[in-house]
Amino acid sequence: MSSKDLKVIIVGGSIAGLSLALMLEKNGIDFVVLEGYPSIAPQVGASIGVLPNGLRILDQLGCCEEVITAAEYPVDKVTFRNSKGQTFWSFENFNQQMVGRHGYPIVFLDRCMLIEILYTNIQQKDKVLTSERVAAVENHPSHVSVTTTTGKTYTGSFVVGGDGIHSTIRQQMWKDARESDPAWFDTSEADALPATYACIFGISEGVPGIEKGTLNSVFNEHFSYLIPSGPGERTYWFLVKNMGKTCYGSEIPRFTKDEEKALAEEHWDDLITPSMRFSDLYKSKISSVYTALPEYVYKKWHFKRMITIGDAAHKFQPLTGQGGNSAIETAAALTNHLVSFLKTNPSRNLLTEDLTMIFEQTQSQREERAWGLVKASHARQRLECMETPLLKFAAKMIFPYIPKHVLLTRWIQTYSPAVSLNMLPIPKRPRTIPYYDELRRSPSSRGPISYVLFVAFAMIAFFAFRLLFVAGKVNGTWSFVGEALVSQSIGEMNMDLRQLYTGVPSIDKILRSLVTIFLPATANPSNPEQPLQLLYFLSSMLPLIAIFTVEGYRERNKWTPIASAGFWGILYQLRGIGFIAPFYFAASLLVSCGSTFFIQPGRQVPAAKFILPAMMLGFIVPTILLFLPFDDSNARQVVIALWQPAPVWISGLTTVFSVVAGIATRVIGGKKNSPKDTMSDLPHLRALYQTTGVIAACVHLSLIIASLVSSGLSLSRLFIPTDSFAPVATLAEGVLVFFQNDLVLVAASCFLWCLVSIWDLNRSGLSDVDLRVAFCGLLAGYVVIGPGATAAMVWFWREGVMSGKAKIFQ
C-alpha cells in the first residue's frame, strides 16, 4: 500500500501525533514519533473529554473500549447552575440519549491516560522516541530531514507537526516560506492568534458533593466553571475567566504559580453547588495549570513537505471538549488522503507537488468544520460568562426554558459531520443518527431555493384564490349559492334545503352552504361528466388525506404547523383543497427545512395501524354514500352533511382507536417497558399507501378507459375548465367549474411537493435519485395512474428510504 521508502516523521507524542502513528501503522506506513518530553505520557494536570466523534475513530483503531473502561463513568447527567450553585437546567439520562443517538458516550479521563492507551496500542514502540525535541527542519526536493536538540537527524518523506499551539513545525514552515515563497502565508498571522479567556484547570481527588457521571457548568458574570467527574475519586475542573481584553500573538500572557494562586484566592468562596465552594476543589487538587486560552484556525496548515495537525493547526476553547477529538479527526483525514493517493500511485515516490495536493485536501476537508466548532465553543463560553446584558438575559431568562430537542439537534451538527478512517471498518454500534460519511452525501439545507419554493406555493395559492373565489363571484356561481340559501331551496332542482343538522346555528349555516354546493354535483349534474369528475376528485384526495394524517401523527412533526391533520382538513373543506394545500405544503417545507431533519429520529408513526381503518370509516364509506341513489332528498342532504367533516372523523377515529388499543394492551397484556420496535409501523404505512393509491389509480384508469370507449364522455370536459370567468347558466355548471379548478390546482401544488420531497431525501444523504428522472417519473405517474396514486407511490418509496436509514445503523 505504501510507496517506495515512504516514512512519516511525526513531531510530538500528543493525542494528534500518537493517533496518527497508530493510523499509519494500521496501514503499513513507516513512521517515527519525536517527543520532546522524557516520558511519553507525562502528568501535566490536564483532563480530556472524549466525544462520539473521537471515540468512533478510536473504535476503528481498537482503543475505544479501553478509553471507556479507563474513564469508568460516562457522563449521564448534565447540569447548568447559577452563581449560587443552584440548578436551573439539567439533562437526565444523558448517556442513554448520547449512546442511543450516536453510538458512543462522552467520557472524561486524564489526558495522560488517553496518551498511554494510544501508545500501548502501537505495536512498533521503538519508533516512538522521547527526549527528542526538534531544533530544525530542512526541506529537500525528495525528502525532509529533522534535527533534534540531541544532535540526531531523522530523514523521512514528510513531517507532521502535532506539537501544540506553540508549534516548532509551524514556526519552521513560516521561516522557510519567508525565504522561498513569501506569499504562501499571511504574514499577519504571526500576531493573529487571539486569546480572550484564561483558565486554571486541575485535577482533584476525594472531593465530596460531585456525583459520578455528572458534568456541571456554573454560570457567572465574566467567569465560569466546568466540572466533570473523573474515574475513581477524581474530579476535573476548569475555572475560565475573561482577561478583560483580547490579546494577540506575543501579547498573550504566560502565568506563574503565584498568579494562579492569586486568581484562585479571588474565587475562593465561589459556589459550585449550594454546599460546595471552589476552595473545596482547589484544596484537594493533585495538579493544576494556569494558562491563556487561544482560539484560532490557521489559514495555511502546510508548506512543502511539512503539515501541522491538532492544536498546531486549530486551537479550541476547552468548554466543548473538541480540541483532542478534532486532532484525532484531522489525523484521520490526513491518513485517508495519504492512503487514497498511495492506492492509485503504489510504486512512485511522493513528489512535493503530490504532498501539497494531499495536504490541501486534508485542510479543505477539515477547515470549515474546525472553524465552526471553534466559533461554537467561543459563543458558548461567552454565554456561560454572561459577557453582555443580552447574554445575561438569555442565560437567566431563556436558557432555562430551552427544550431538550434543541440540544439534541445541536448534537447532530456537532458529531455527525465527523471524519472516520475510510480504509478501516466502522464497528457496528446501534444508533439512530448516522454519521455523514455513512450517508450517500453530507446533508445540506435547501439554501435560497427555499424562498423560490415558498414563492411558487404562494403563487399557486394566489391563482387558486382567483380561480375558486374571484371567478365564482364573476361567473355567478356564488350568486346561485346565495339565492338558494336565502330561498331555502335550489330552484333548478326543485329541492328544498334542509335547515337543521346539529342544532348549532353557526355549524348548521356552514353545512347548509356546503350541502348547497355538493347537491348539484351528485343529484342534478350539468353534464354526464360531473358526478364522475367529483368521484375522481374525491378519490384523488384520498391518498393526500392519508398522507396529511400520517404526517400529523409522525413523531418528529409534533408541535409543528402540520401536526394536526384535522385542522388542515377543516380549512380545505371550507375553502377548497386547491387553495389550502399550497399553504400546507409550504408549512411542511418550513418544518423540514433543516439539513438534518430527515436523519433525526422520529420517523415513526405510532398510530399507523389505525389510520387505514379510520380512513375507511371516516372517508371511504361516507364517500360511497354520496353517490348512492336516494329518493329522499332530505336523506341525501344528511349524507352530504355527514361527509363534510371527513378529515375530522379520520383524525378522531385514529386517536380513539389508538387510545382504546393502548388501554386494552395494558389491561389484557400487562406489558410494560417492552422494547420499542422502530419498524413496526412500516407494514401498516405501506398498506395505507397501497390501498389509497390503488383506489385512486383504479378510478383514474377506469375514467380514462371509459372516455376512450364511450363517445358520451370527454376527458377535456371531465378535467379541464373552459373559461372560469364566463357566466354559468346553472349552479351545477358553476360547481363543476369550481371542482375542476380545485382539482387542477391541488394536482399542480402536489406535483411540486412530491418533487421537493424526493429532493429532500437526496440533500439529506438518504437517496441519490436523479431529479430529472424524478420529474419525468412524476409526469408519467400523473398520466398513467393519476395525481393521487402518484403521491401515494412517492410516499411509499419515501417511507422505505427513511426506514432503510434506521436499518443501516443497527
- Specify the helix fraction band: 40-55%
- SS field, number of helical segments: 26
- Average pLDDT confidence is 92
Judging from the principal axes of the Cα atoms, what is the shape? Answer: elongated
- Please report the total strand number as a whole number: 24
What gap, in angstroms, lies between the N and C termini?
A: 32 Å
Spatial ordering of strands, largest sheet = 5-4-13-14-15-12-18
Q: What report would you give on this structure?
A:
Helix 1 (15-26) runs parallel beside helix 9 (322-344), helix 13 runs antiparallel to helix 18 and helix 15 (505-523) crosses helix 24 (731-763). Strand 4 (77-81) and strand 5 (87-91) form a beta hairpin. The two termini are 32 Å apart. The chain has a seven-stranded mixed β-sheet with strand order 5-4-13-14-15-12-18, with helices on both faces. A six-stranded mixed β-sheet has the order 7-2-1-11-21-20, sandwiched between helices. It folds into two domains: 7-438, FAD/NAD(P)-binding domain; 449-808, no CATH class. The chain is an alpha+beta fold and 810 residues long. The model is unreliable at 806-810 (pLDDT under 50). It is built from 26 helices and 24 strands.
What would the keywords be for this entry?
single chain; about 800 residues; alpha+beta; FAD/NAD(P)-binding domain; 2 domains; 7-stranded mixed beta sheet; 6-stranded mixed beta sheet; 24 strands; about 50% helix; disordered C terminus
